[in-house]
Write a structure and sequence with these properties.
It contains 3 helices and no strands. The chain is mostly helical. The longest helix has 33 residues.
């Protein structure tokens, strides 16, 4: 399951940024290789990987080569990932619509 690993990595990155922000002279944007674009790219790649693992596990079960517990866990992780992606997309669309209705 990649979801707990992604959550742990996000927590570690947030902790590192908080520590860097509390250190005088170092801004969170100064962390090497850490910017929003890299974070977003990694999150999308992790999401795609999790969904593919769920699909592969389901196909393995259809072929009779996979353990049902692993299949359920993989499909559940894929479903949770898809729900998260859809929720983030909805928030981005709502934010865009809100910005577009702002008076100039």
């Amino acid at each position: 399951m990649a979801l707990p690993a992604a959550a742990a990595a996000a927590y570690q990155n947030a902790a590192r940024m908080a520590q860097a922000a509390s250190t005088p002279g170092i801004a969170p944007a100064d962390l090497p290789g850490q910017n929003f674009s890299d974070f977003l790219t990694g999150a999308v790649k992790d999401s795609i990987s999790t969904i593919r693992q769920g699909e592969q596990a389901a196909q393995g079960q259809i072929a009779g080569k996979a353990n049902i517990v692993d299949v359920v866990n993989s499909v559940n992780a894929a479903e949770l990932t898809l729900d998260t992606v859809v929720a983030v997309r909805d928030k981005v669309v709502a934010a865009y619509q809100s910005i577009m209705t702002m008076p100039i």
